[in-house]
Amino acid sequence: MIIDCAVYRDGVRETTPDDSAALDAALAGLGTDDFLWIGIANPTSDELHRIAGPLSLHPLAVEDALEAHQRPKIEKYEDHTFMSIRTVSYSDDDITTHEVNIFLGPNYLLTVRHGGPELHGARKAAESMIEHLSHGPTAALYAVVDSIVDHYEDVATELETDVQEVESSVFSAQRSNDSTRIYRLKRETLEFRRAVMPLREPVHRFATVSAPERARPYFRDISDHLSRAAESIDSIDHLLDNALNAHLAQLSVQQNEDMRKLTAGATIFAVPTAIAGVYGMNFEHMPELSWTYGYPACLAVIGALCLYIYSRFKRSGWL
Amino acid sequence: MIIDCAVYRDGVRETTPDDSAALDAALAGLGTDDFLWIGIANPTSDELHRIAGPLSLHPLAVEDALEAHQRPKIEKYEDHTFMSIRTVSYSDDDITTHEVNIFLGPNYLLTVRHGGPELHGARKAAESMIEHLSHGPTAALYAVVDSIVDHYEDVATELETDVQEVESSVFSAQRSNDSTRIYRLKRETLEFRRAVMPLREPVHRFATVSAPERARPYFRDISDHLSRAAESIDSIDHLLDNALNAHLAQLSVQQNEDMRKLTAGATIFAVPTAIAGVYGMNFEHMPELSWTYGYPACLAVIGALCLYIYSRFKRSGWL
Amino acid sequence: MIIDCAVYRDGVRETTPDDSAALDAALAGLGTDDFLWIGIANPTSDELHRIAGPLSLHPLAVEDALEAHQRPKIEKYEDHTFMSIRTVSYSDDDITTHEVNIFLGPNYLLTVRHGGPELHGARKAAESMIEHLSHGPTAALYAVVDSIVDHYEDVATELETDVQEVESSVFSAQRSNDSTRIYRLKRETLEFRRAVMPLREPVHRFATVSAPERARPYFRDISDHLSRAAESIDSIDHLLDNALNAHLAQLSVQQNEDMRKLTAGATIFAVPTAIAGVYGMNFEHMPELSWTYGYPACLAVIGALCLYIYSRFKRSGWL
Amino acid sequence: MIIDCAVYRDGVRETTPDDSAALDAALAGLGTDDFLWIGIANPTSDELHRIAGPLSLHPLAVEDALEAHQRPKIEKYEDHTFMSIRTVSYSDDDITTHEVNIFLGPNYLLTVRHGGPELHGARKAAESMIEHLSHGPTAALYAVVDSIVDHYEDVATELETDVQEVESSVFSAQRSNDSTRIYRLKRETLEFRRAVMPLREPVHRFATVSAPERARPYFRDISDHLSRAAESIDSIDHLLDNALNAHLAQLSVQQNEDMRKLTAGATIFAVPTAIAGVYGMNFEHMPELSWTYGYPACLAVIGALCLYIYSRFKRSGWL
Amino acid sequence: MIIDCAVYRDGVRETTPDDSAALDAALAGLGTDDFLWIGIANPTSDELHRIAGPLSLHPLAVEDALEAHQRPKIEKYEDHTFMSIRTVSYSDDDITTHEVNIFLGPNYLLTVRHGGPELHGARKAAESMIEHLSHGPTAALYAVVDSIVDHYEDVATELETDVQEVESSVFSAQRSNDSTRIYRLKRETLEFRRAVMPLREPVHRFATVSAPERARPYFRDISDHLSRAAESIDSIDHLLDNALNAHLAQLSVQQNEDMRKLTAGATIFAVPTAIAGVYGMNFEHMPELSWTYGYPACLAVIGALCLYIYSRFKRSGWL
Lengths: 319, 319, 319, 319, 319
Prior knowledge:
Membrane topology (chains A, B, C, D, E): Multi-pass membrane protein
Oligomer: homopentamer
Keywords (chains A, B, C, D, E): Cell membrane, Ion transport, Magnesium, Membrane, Transmembrane, Transmembrane helix, Transport
Order of helices and strands of chain A: EEHEHHEEEEHHHHHH
Subcellular location (chains A, B, C, D, E): Cell membrane; Membrane
CATH topology of the largest domain in chain A: Beta Polymerase, domain 2
CATH architecture of the largest domain in chain A: 2-Layer Sandwich
Largest interface: B-D, 56 and 44 residues
Number of helices of chain A: 9
Distance between the termini of chain A: 69 Å
Strand content of chain A: 15-25%
Function (chains A, B, C, D, E): Mediates influx of magnesium ions. Alternates between open and closed states. Activated by low cytoplasmic Mg(2+) levels. Inactive when cytoplasmic Mg(2+) levels are high.
CATH superfamily of the largest domain in chain A: CorA soluble domain-like
Largest sheet of chain A: 7 strands, mixed
Number of domains of chain A: 2
Catalytic activity (chains A, B, C, D, E): Mg(2+)(in) = Mg(2+)(out)
Number of strands of chain A: 7
């Protein structure tokens, strides 16, 4: 579905029809500083191939843009640059990524979005910036990529918040089984990593070599945001590994405590059982049995022993 | 066994006999854009040496092609490029790899397959593409390698599915001993890794330096698929490591639960035993013994205590 | 808030008003070896933009300086170099970092501090060194960065002390739950790492390539301090990982000990219970029961057995 | 001990006496394609220094060759190349390595072996190949190194077999203490690694830069074998790490099972003890005691309860 | 404290007074192949600054040499090279390092030692070698560094011996708590690593680029020794990690054994207690009680059961 198709002349937007002929005409009529911006969402093969002709897109890149299982990358073709990037969103311990494929030509920008949030905001941002920037499609590319990459850091922050939640749970006095959630967060971090990491090197190269001189600081800024997101991911990864190990240690500590309680409890009950057993024996000559206060004395001894053992265990922290 | 031997003239196939003399003739008769494609499966030393002469293959490469224990690699010899690659298939937690050795000459392509699936599909694909491509053996090479590497991602996906199965089992309420399967998947992932990883760098180099200019985007595409498979493998590896750790944590949690049940159970039975023991003592002066309702009162007390302890443990989750 | 604004002429300080016009005048009046040093703390957008004009700071760098969520970095713009660095302080197992953003122009140094300790000391240090150094803003930059990086090593030393505390606790005879603190230190080390590591490579590059020839040994010195701090961090990281593992081993040892005590205790009490049970049986023909010394003999046997078992366990270290 | 000393003229062997004067003469009489091959085993300082003179070996290299504690390496001296490599053999979980030091001059090859298997086979192999190769000492070097490196893969295969044995033991139903053997294999793998890894980079460099053009594919082949051995080692390492972790998990599973058996057993015995205790009480008014069938009824109840509990535990897998 | 100060003329030593004037004179009087060697131990600031003038040492390097908290490094200044290296000694599981700072000028060598063993041996070694070497301060530098680095390997060997001791303890039948010692060795290995690792790259660079041509094989030799020490450290590190894991596995195995002993013991005692409990019941109609051989039969049954259970557990290895 073609979402939007507009020519930007000196930073001013003119909407254009999106059929092949009109595209040809629009491209032919572009001045040196003008450019065409086409936005497509969930494209069919027909839609994309109709546009591919006038823009002379490389057939492999068109296939890639249609497939939507690309590894994040930037690739230079003869006539244009192809970029595959992923929007990332996070909710309820779940990372969702959607692919955005972008063609950057000398006088056009084509964005192909597969699901995920709209790029409308990026277009608005780009339009407001176009006057300050080198008036070209690179500025529009910057706006789109910047809006996507900025969101990476938000997601990283949310992940970090959830990691803190897990930490609190691991180290709380309450018993909890946190390994499931730690594993889940680890899994999502891995998915996040696969969206961010492959992009670092090509964006860095684009920012320092391929981008037009005046646009470089801007793409360097994006490269920096990517690095920050990547460091957050590494840091989250490490924290989760450590949280799982700490969880294991906590479980061990808790088991130790239970073991001691078991020992203490068993001992406390063993005492009356053993003593009562002794006075339950049927020997004929057991003088204590005929004492008037034998029974209460026996109970008192049992009670005293139990109390003594209990207080000993209490004091040494076993109960 | 020589499977197929054909000359492609302007993209059109002409089958050729496969004896040495016919090969010499065929090679001599090749035009600038024509090339010869020979496919061999499970070669005997004789078969391969018979072909090696006319194609002037390097003896070391011929040895490598016969041995079928090569590390995946691409090597340039004076007259041709030698490539060793592995087909990978996966079923029932078991990775199987088979070697395909390929000689790419200026006007021929020789594929030597050791077991594994047929390359017939690749040949068909190549034949359908030859017209669009620079009509040469590189196009055929692309078709063969692409069909093999594409399958890597399928295998990675199947592995990921099995990892998810293991995860479900690890985190299910049911007790299970998943370490055996986790280990098995880890082992297969290692074998998969050894088929994929050594190929990444040489394919990347081939795609950016050695391949003819027009074919580069195609091999870059293969390089990209390899990277994606490699990332999947890394990701599976990490998940399995974490799954094993999480499994250990689960086992610890389960042991804690058993320990608590043991403690609770022991306590519940210790109470009647101790009390009964007391009233089993043979003291002469035990007033409770002669009470009319002594016995039922005693039973009631025992019952009440057991119930109280039981409900306490139940409420605190120990039972 | 503009903290300080001064012109250094041949190493001598002259305070200057900080409004835009005065800045323009001050910049215009600078001789070849003079330079302007402006210090700002917690800047508002207005304050910074007022200064940005006369110094012709790049708008992206100005945004970065205002935001205060930068990754430590050094970036070259056309007219100046932008550096983002973090002051690090540590107390009570808690690392706090504050951002200092620095603009180094041909004849000015602008430091923008977001919270954290004052840079007054660095200014004093710089003033005392200016005569020895190439009289320029690079000397001032060195003084500021040196005072910040020097503190990294102090923090690393304090962290190492705390790690030693944890070690003592882990390996002490007393039972302790150290995983919480180990995890906390690990977390803080991660934060510290993110302040230090990204700076290593750009400072090294600045010290060997970008800095003026005479200043290079000084920045190489800073680069060296960074490397030392980085090695300390790596080392702390490793120690904490190992401490957690050792803690797990200690817990396992302690659990083993408890288990043995439980076994020993249960055995000691099981003996009198079993024997007493036997003599509590109601068989009519139990000759021992009518012996005069049956009861004391029985008690003696029980006592002797308990003592024997106790001493056996004691000797083998189970109790 | 000098083992062998021969001049190869056009690939034909002529044995030579090994005293200094004869060496000088032999070297002086060598044609452009001839070379001298000397083999020494367990050299004394005298032997080696006697040869060092005529061949003008660098004193440092001679010291290295005598000491036999070299790190595997290839080093270029002005007049010759010095190579230190290790033969590796494996039996009974034990890796043994022996050093072979090699001097490659323009017209001689000197091999100095410290213990380990003879290089006779390599010499025979070289002699059979010399005619096909550039007739020079490099061909002889290839033969020696190839015979050593080929054996690395055999050793790796044997290690892999032993790892599989350990795996079977870890995952077998039988209880076993495999950590000792896993550790031992790990230790041997480390020693193997130290023999193989340092050689990879210099052999690769030798194969691509230093070796004569025609010999390069041959050394590239060796480099490839090294890579394969190295990958096997990495893979074995990973498997052993995982086997140890899986072993821990197995131990945990076994302990859980024991714990449950303990719980089940304790419960089964606690029931008759508690009930019998109750009917052992001495209350005067316990109507059941005077029932004719009180005793058998009681036994029946106890038996039924025990059976019920037993079957419950059996069904839930605790016994 | 200035230890020694001598001029070496054509390899012959002439002792010189160490005051500033004498130094100036000595330096002025040096021929092209002569050089001055000054050795200082635990320098005061005055001592070093007195010497710094005539040798025109860079003030930063002088500060570094005084401070004695340098990271091992080699740094080129305009007029000289500054090297910081550490002597390492090991005893009783304790690594001690001392700093040696070295200035290498065109015609002088200045060694500044902070504690640690004397360098006298190195000086003697250098004096005996000077005649064979390019007569200059580089030869002296080689002697000093070689004597320090050689000791690294001794220390590594001693560490390896201690690791083997720990291994024996871990895998011995006797119960031991080895985690403390493993941790301690790990910690010392880390300190050792920090003394060795930072030196590898600069020494390698010095050996291949900066050193005079004739001295390179000698420094390459040092570089090689460093690599060997580094590999030993890596290997020790790995072994310690694995030893800790194996220790955990051993603890688990031991706990399993204790658990089984507990289960077995509890069962053996539970049998007489339960049976005796049954015959302790007060039912009126219990025919066994009045049998003449009831009691001995009961004892026999109890004894037989206990023996049977005992032998069962014994046979299955639980006791």
